[in-house]
Write a structure and sequence with these properties.
The chain is of the alpha/beta class. The chain has three domains: about 1-115 and about 180-235, no CATH class; about 115-170, Nuclear Transport Factor 2, Chain: A, CATH 3.10.450; about 275-485, Vaccinia Virus protein VP39 (Rossmann fold, 3-Layer(aba) Sandwich), CATH 3.40.50. Helix content is about 35%, strand content about 25%. It contains 21 helices and 20 strands. Strands 3-2-4-5-9-10-1-11 form an eight-stranded mixed β-sheet, with helices on both faces. The N and C termini lie far apart (about 55 Å). The model is unreliable at about 240-260 (pLDDT under 50).
């Protein structure tokens, strides 16, 4: 197993993750392994359709995921309309049919958790009050890896999880029963991985042939890391439906469901303990975060990235600023702001998070260092940072005054701090999603009201320059507080 990315910058920018699939198809065409490529592009009504293409430019034009069920009869007719050698990208449910067609020489298979009919897209456009006649450009994985629409009068860029939520209403029954998440019968299987990387598994000699002719950069990845990245879908697809033991009211309930049910009591006690604990150390927080598996995977489909994208227009980062990212988690903030960052210090109480952060800094060519947070004061001299990032951290701190006073010490006079934290109203939701194992626990925490946050900032030498409250779930359930502060004294 490998991870990789296209060496062509244009391809990487147009693709969903890494651009490897597009480079594989171009390599097959340019090395005369095939005559044409079957791609999925959007027609004049912005509905996905199959096309036969024969140039590099056409392949790049069709790059990127299209989340919509397709008519397989139309695909078979298209393939049978020519005797030329073809390569195709497909989902697990397409493989066995395509293997019966003699002129399909290479099959690249996508990882797939579920898919939805085009009605899901139409539903989203309707809710956004967008008419198809006004659309200029539409992408399922556009800006910030989410659903993007450019119209004659406006641009809309939604986080990926907005579209993910539609599966609750539109996912097909077949997808719920399918066990072939990793597309094991393809010549090459590919899926999402780290940011700007593609996970690649070559399964046949034809797959190796495709890899050898593609203009990509690859490196190895362990099976353990692959399982960590896709644990949720692997467990759901491979074990959830195959280990059924109980039938109630005509429905089968798998072992995983029963285990989830039995774990509620323990998770309830854990969450009660975290909420009732009055004092804890930075090492306590670190030990908790070290137990959280799949942190990045969970937060791909949550409001996680809104803490960054929702604040980028609120603060100007001067060139050559020295930045501190306090409780940086796995380095998401540094990666998001990488084009504006020259130097950054990422601090976290979690050893596991810092290991991931170090790798992400290196992979994204960010000039940064990491430091394990065990206690206050922090290692650095007073006034050595121009900007401090404090994303969703204040609620995990036991002694707020000590913490904010230390950040004030580290910040230069007139230096800026970007601070985000969930609303106090959000505490019950965090409690319930952890109890029912919908999302990872947040561990030790104490949510603060807007009034409490303002008082703490003012009492510890910060002047609030800007303030914003944001709804960050499509159902309007959650609020995030954002503060841009300046060191006043």
């Amino acid at each position: 197993m490998k991870i990789g990315y296209s060496n062509n910058k244009e391809i990487r920018e147009r693709s969903s993750s890494g651009g490897v699939v597009t480079s594989l198809l171009i390599g097959a065409l340019e090395n005369n392994l095939v005559d044409k490529i079957v791609v999925v592009d959007l027609d004049e009504n912005f509905k996905p359709k199959y096309k036969l293409v024969s140039t590099k430019e056409e392949i790049i034009q069709a790059a990127g995921s299209k989340y919509s069920l397709m008519n397989m009869i139309e695909l078979v007719r298209l393939i049978k309309s020519t005797k030329e050698r073809l390569a195709i990208v497909c989902l697990p449910c397409h493989i066995r049919l395509l293997r019966r067609l003699e002129n399909v020489k290479y099959i690249i298979g996508l990882f797939c958790g579920y898919n939805m009919p085009y009605e899901a897209t139409e539903f989203l456009l309707k809710k956004l009050k967008i008419k198809k006649d006004d659309i200029i450009e539409m992408s399922y994985r556009g800006k910030n890896n989410g659903f993007s629409v450019i119209t004659k009068t406006k641009e809309i860029h939604l986080p990926k999880y907005y579209y993910d939520f539609l599966n609750l209403m539109f996912v097909s029954e077949g997808c719920l029963k399918c066990k072939k998440f990793m597309n094991e019968e393809a010549d090459i299987s590919v899926g999402d991985c780290y940011e700007n990387y593609t996970l690649i598994t070559s399964r046949t000699s034809l797959g190796k042939e495709l890899l050898n002719c593609a203009d990509i950069t690859t490196k190895s990845i362990t099976e353990e890391e692959v399982f960590r990245l896709h644990k949720h879908n692997i467990n759901h697809k491979k074990f959830g439906f195959s280990r059924s033991i109980l039938k109630v009211f005509g429905r089968y309930f798998p072992v995983k469901f029963l285990g989830w049910l039995c774990g509620i009591r323990k998770r309830f006690k854990d969450e009660l303990y975290y909420c009732k604990t009055k004092e804890w150390s930075y090492e306590d927080v670190g030990r908790f975060w070290d137990t959280v598996e799949e942190y990045d995977k969970f937060n791909e489909i949550s409001a996680h990235n809104k803490r960054f994208s929702g604040t980028q227009d609120m603060i100007i980062i001067p060139e050559n600023s020295k930045i501190l990212d306090i409780d940086c988690r796995t380095g998401d903030g540094a990666v998001f702001f990488k084009d504006k960052i020259k130097r950054i210090i990422c601090i976290s109480p979690s050893e596991n998070f810092l290991k991931i952060c170090e790798r992400r800094l290196k992979d994204n060519n960010i000039n940064g260092k990491t430091l394990l947070l065990k206690e206050i004061p922090i290692y650095y001299e007073a006034g050595c940072f121009d900007i401090i990032f404090c994303f969703e951290t204040l609620e995990h701190i036991s002694n707020h005054n000590e913490f904010l006073n230390e950040l004030n010490r580290l910040l230069k006079l007139k230096g800026k701090m970007l601070l985000t934290t969930p609303s106090k109203l959000w505490s019950i939701v965090h409690f319930l999603v952890a109890v029912f194992n919908i999302h990872h626990s947040e561990g030790y925490r104490r949510f603060l009201s807007k009034k409490e946050i303002r008082s703490l900032l003012n009492n510890n030498g910060f002047k609030i320059l800007k303030e914003k409250t944001s709804v960050y779930l499509p159902f309007g359930l959650g609020l995030r507080r954002t503060f841009i502060c300046e060191k006043e004294y």
